[in-house]
Structures are given as structure tokens and as C-alpha cells.
Write a structure and sequence with these properties.
Blueprint lengths: L6 E8 L4 H12 L4 E6 L5 E6 L5 H10 L3 E2 L2
Antiparallel strand pairs: 1-3, 1-4, 2-3
């Protein structure tokens, strides 16, 4: 029996200022296929996405844009 190691994607989201912002980003990223967990640090903008598969930056960016924010370069 093999145990799958989850993938971790770390990005910085620009423009979040409140709990509602955090909730919006978390909600959109959670809808991506295979996402298990989303951790958002409001103060730094750091976001970690834990998933069953490797997520492309374009997929993450699209979810963040849908939430009304943008990724740092």
C-alpha cells in the first residue's frame, strides 16, 4: 500500500486586508480539483495550498483573480 504525499504550493496574494478577503481566497482555491487544505496568513499575504496533485500557477492565479486579488511575481 502506498501513501500519497500531498503537494504544497506556496504563493503570495496581494491586496488582502480583512477576514472576508481571507475567506474569499480560501473559498476559490478550495474549489480547485484535488485541494485538501488552504492556509492563509492575512498579515503577510502568504498562502499555502495542500493538494493531491501538483497545481499549476495558472490555476492558482485564476482562482485568486476570481476572488478579486492578484499574485505577487
Amino acid at each position: 500500500m502506498s501513501v500519497e504525499t500531498p503537494f504544497r504550493s506556496n504563493v503570495t496574494v496581494l491586496g488582502m486586508t480583512c477576514g472576508h478577503c481571507t475567506m474569499s481566497v480560501t473559498e476559490e482555491l478550495s474549489e480547485l480539483d484535488g485541494v485538501r487544505e488552504v492556509e492563509v496568513d492575512l498579515e503577510s499575504g502568504a498562502v499555502t495550498v495542500v493538494s493531491d496533485r501538483e497545481l499549476g500557477r495558472d490555476d492558482i492565479n485564476a482562482a485568486v483573480v476570481e476572488a478579486g486579488f492578484s499574485l505577487a511575481d
